[in-house]
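Bit of a strange request maybe. I'm writing a small parser for structure token strings and I need a real example to test against, not something I typed by hand. Could someone generate the tokens for this chain?
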Amino acid sequence: MKKRTLIVFAIFLSASVFLFNSFYKESKSIAIAKLNGEQMIHAKQAARGIEGFFEMWTRSLTYLSNIDQIVDIDTAGKRYLELFYDVNQDQIMSITRLDERGVIIYNFPSTSSLGIDISDQKHVRQLLQVHKPVISDVFKPLRDSIAMHVPIFRGGVFKGSIGVLINFESLTRRYFDAIKIGKTGYAWVVSRDGTQLYSPVPGHTGKSVFENARDFPSVIVMVNDMLKGHSGVTTYLFDRVGAREAKEARKYAVYMPVKVGDTFWSIVVATSEEDVFAGLVSVRKKLLVVICVLFIFGTVFSTLAAKGWFIVKEVEGRRKAEQRYHQLFEDASEGIVLLNDRGSIEAANESFVKRHGYTKEEIANMSFKDLATPETFKVFAEMNPRVLAGETLRFEAEQYHKGGHIVSFEVVLDLMRDDDGKRIVAFYRDVTERKQAESDKAQLRHELAHLAGVMAMNEISTSLAHEINQPLGAILNNASAAKLLVSRATDTPDDISEILADIIQDAKRAGDVIRKIRGMMANEEALFEPLDMNALIEETEKLFRNAVSMQNVSISLVLQPDLARVKGDRVRLQQVLVNLITNALESMQKKTTKILTIRSKMQAPGEVTVSISDSGIGINAAKKDDVFKPFYTTKKEGLGMGLRICKSIIEEHGGRIWAENNPDAGATFSFSLKTLPGESA
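Reply from user aminoacidic:
Good idea to test on real output. This should exercise your parser:
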């Protein structure tokens, strides 16, 4: 009996120990998996935030690099940089302009560094070599800052850079300091070359991670994988918990790359083992109780109790995880929406519903199709299968606000898997203001083009007045003659009919001139239609006949017969001809010999070329590349917009325009346009 009791006791003891170990390992695995999931969410949020931060600065600096005054760093350019610094001084510490050798030629607000050569700095060397945007490591002497530079070009030639010194401390507070998991969890960041950009451990920031972790091989193994641009989950041994020294302990960590310009950083989120298993103490106690129950009530009751405990803990863990996820979901500054595989909305955060003007109750009964414009939904429908297959895709979307107007977003689609299947999570960034700015810029270009047309009409007003006065005078004379014939009543009806026909013909001539003026002055959208360029050249030449005669200019038209037609806007192309002819006449004002030649020909298959040549003063060779730039002019009263607008009109038609000096005297301005499909000379 004792032997059986001992055997049963041994069996129950073995079973209890086995169950205890199994349940504890299962609980441990679940706790680690949940921890790593939470750490990965923090890492992804920080990575996306940093990527968006530097993308925004790259766009801003690239925009500044295209402003001619900043390229020239003249008074206006310096003022632009000062205004930009004033607007952004809460994020940047200074703004700098380097020349092509890496020498500081402008710095604000401090001017003490002017003339200093910083080409020996690593990021500046990289900039001078590759001529692409660069980002430095953290400068410890400069109050924890990061330098970002974007190259500047003039006509394709590298002219240095424009850069800002970013307050890295504000960046870390925003994205890294906020990462707190339990009592020991924190984040640290390394650059692509292994420099530790951020760490809560004193003295580590700015040093090589290989030096900081030289006594911990498991950290080195993880870092080597990070520097290859990989992401992953691992464990390592370390003797610090933030700024506090501790005994060597195992840490559970996740890591992933952060794309920054042409390079990347890697972010690590790690938590000590003691934090991971702090919640498992009660688990061990309950398992001991279960073992006692097993001895008393038998294997069946112990098994049922263990299963019940496991279910309760799993539900509790899921509830806590769902609470953490829901909090992150609702507090996100970007709009976030969950879609099922058919595009129906299952959940949306507060930012998303506010940007669309709906309540959460209203949005819950809608789908992506209900909000999207037809063009946006077409793009989404094409991307949907690819996202469900695991791709992460980005596109710009236009969606309807509840008020009826359209709002614009940059949308990132990603796949999320759970027990209920696959879902699509969409991150929304509002870009409506950027779209409006682009629209305002296009409208400004349109209005400037109209202004140039009005100014061109002022140049030829004398000739047009002469054109109109001739038919009006003829109308007056013929009408007087007709009145005289009627009063005499001696002439035949044929004589009167002939005079009336002359009056009608002269009236039509005056009407044609007036319609041409209205066409040149009208501020209308472009109307593309088949055009005969020879006819348009001849029509435009008539507008200048009086001016040409008064200035003693010899004008000749050398037009290729049977020239293929082009597709274009008659008024805008005539405006280009008027601007180029007016410039040619002005360039010959002080010349004794004045020759103006207008040519048309098929320069290449499917391409019509028009050239205006003069015998004037020609183009300054040093400024040849500047003639089509905005605000460049050699006239005292000029605005410098005429040739720039000509270039915009020709490019709007899919053509190109260029200028060159003649071998003997003067210059030739030429532009080419594509012929209508199926037509050739």
